[in-house]
Amino acid sequence: MKAFARPGPDPLRGAVVGAIAGLAAAAAMNVFQSVAQRLAPGAQGSGDSADVRAADRLVRAAGGAPLDEAAKPVAGAAMHYALGLALGAGYGVAAEYRPAVTAGNGAAFGSVAALVLDEAVVPATGLAPPPGEVPAPAHLFGLSSHLVFGATTEMVRSFLVGLLRR
What we know:
It is built from 6 helices and no strands. It is mainly alpha-helical. The relative contact order is 0.20. The longest helix has 29 residues, at 11-39. It has a domain at 15-42 and 77-164.
């Protein structure tokens, strides 16, 4: 633990606590989405999620067969958590060097994640339709989900860093 307790920027500490925070945030995002779907059915859209489509594309690129219906939930969750871990690790390292990235207690991070992922990367890769073809409630659902992701990432990251600095 002493290796993580030294003062000043520490990229290893940032990556580790950020990865843990990203996993926790991915779980929180799932809970939020589940509740939101019950309160406003159809807000997320229909069909397979971008996570499932990405997992299917990855499996096919590796020479595998398309995902069957039973494998889709597990593969989609694996993609979701892997992305949460990676984003959290990057965020944790960035926060070590530029504390301003934690602005709004993670709200800025969540907003940027929504903008970059939902509005640019996912449509550009063909995993979702272009933003102009997505109904407004789905955009709001995505932004809200990523705000939960960003806030949870920062809450867990700052808690863990505080523990390690004691």
